[in-house]
Amino acid sequence: MSTKIPDALKADMPQTTWSRILVATPVVMTVVATLLAGLASSEMTRAQYNRALAAQQQAKAGDQWSFFQAKRLRGAVQLGTLDLLRATASVRPLTEAALQRIGEGDAAVSAAMLKGELPPNPGPATAEPSLQSALEAVERMQPEPEIRAALASVRATTVDEAIQAARDRAAAFDRAATPISRGVDRVEKAVAASGPADLLRDVTAARLRYTAARYEVEARLNQAVANLYELQVRMSNMAAERHHRRSERFFLGMLAAQAAVITATFALAARQRSILWSLAAAVGVVAIVFAVYVYVWL
Questions:
Q1: Angle between the N-to-C axes of helices 273-297 and 197-270, in degrees from 0 to 180, rounded to the nearest 10
Q2: What is the rounded average pLDDT of the residues 214-233?
Q3: Helical H runs in the chain?
Q4: How far apart are CA 228 and CA 251, in angstroms?
Q5: Distance CA 107, CA 119 (A)
Q6: What integer is the mean pLDDT of 184-191?
Q7: Banded model confidence at residue 241, pLDDT cuts 50, 70, 90
Q8: Which ranges of 89-152 does DSSP label H, i.e. alpha helix?
Q9: pLDDT tens digits for 108-135?
Q10: Is pLDDT of 273 > 60?
Q11: Lowest mean pLDDT: which of 51-55, 58-62, 143-147, 223-227?
Q12: What DSSP letter does each residue of 188-212 carry, written as one string?
């Protein structure tokens, strides 16, 4: 038994492949609009994530700058106290014989009090040329566009590794300097308990000189970590701005796809398929091409 389609209904059905494609335009454009809306939302979420990450990194940088300022201030206080002590009393350089009488036999502590020697300073690590250029741009307070241009070729993993290395150097110096500082304090307490006043002044002056030098090195190590965190903050902000721009472009593409859907819907109502459907298809193609351009190049 065969089914006969009324002639009026046959007239409304697409007869060619191109007509069938045009009839499917509303469905295709709806799918495209949905995908573009999802991409726009995803890019905006990434932008917000990077903004939040930049805020966290800025807090870490602020901690390092606080350490830097506190240690520089402590070092300045030590030097000021030393100048005041020298101006108000007779201070003589410590001798090895005096330390031996006190009973201090540690070579590192003796070197710290006699010569003001510090533990080996790890110093700055050799950074990649691109990272070094970015650090120099920040330290010289160059304009923000120049800093961004220098950061364009720096990888996030490179900065992460540099931060970890800088923190390791600061921790290594602290581990090496802590026993010496305790030894210096121990010598001063021993002299304060039983030694003569003039020897106590000499030991105190040696301790102030060593402590000031130690705070200076520690402050510079914290400064190196803070500068690297500042680069991270800028890179996260740059990534957030990039995702924000991509979200705006995808949103515009979604609007174009929705315009194609609306145009195709009007064509159904007006039965002017040949013109309006062609316009819908053209708008849809523009939306797809624009989305591909944003996804690949922006």
A1: 170
A2: 93
A3: 7-12, 17-23, 25-88, 96-102, 107-115, 129-139, 144-151, 156-194, 197-270, 273-297
A4: 35
A5: 12
A6: 86
A7: very high
A8: 96-102, 107-115, 129-139, 144-151
A9: 888 888 888 888 877 666 678 888 888 8
A10: no
A11: 143-147
A12: HHHHHHHS-HHHHHHHHHHHHHHHH
Query: How many other C-beta atoms can be found within 10 angstroms of the C-beta atom of residue 258?
Result: 20
Q: Are 29 and 264 in contact (CB under 8 A)?
A: yes
Give the dihedral of Cα atoms 138, 144, 145, 146; nearest 10 deg. -20
Total count of domains within the chain: 1
Distance CA 200, CA 219 (A): 28
Closest alpha carbon to 260 in 76, 97, 24, 93:
24
Contact of 43 with 247, CB cutoff 8 Å: yes
**Tokens encoding 259:** 């315009």
Q: Is-contact 27 286, C-beta < 8 A? A: no
Looking at residue 89, what is its pLDDT? 84
Residue 8 falls inside a structural domain: no
Residue 60 lies in a domain: yes
DSSP one-letter code for 5: P
Residue 3 lies in a domain: no
The reported pLDDT for the residue numbered 1 is: 43
What whole-number distance in Å separates Cα of residue 252 and Cα of residue 246?
Answer: 10
Q: How far apart are the first and last CA of the chain?
A: 59
Going by C-beta distance under 8 Å and a sequence separation of 6 or more, which residues neighbour residue 86?
205
Three-state DSSP class for residue 14: coil
Give the Cα separation of 146 and 265 in Å (integer). Answer: 50
Contact 166, 228 (CB under 8 A): yes
In angstroms, the Cα distances linking 262 to 95, 255, 275 are 93, 10, 14
Q: Which domain holds residue 79?
A: 18-297
* Residue 1: inside a domain: no
Buried b (16+ CB within 10 A) or exposed e, 260-298: bbebbeebeeeeebeebbebbbebbeebbebbeebeeee
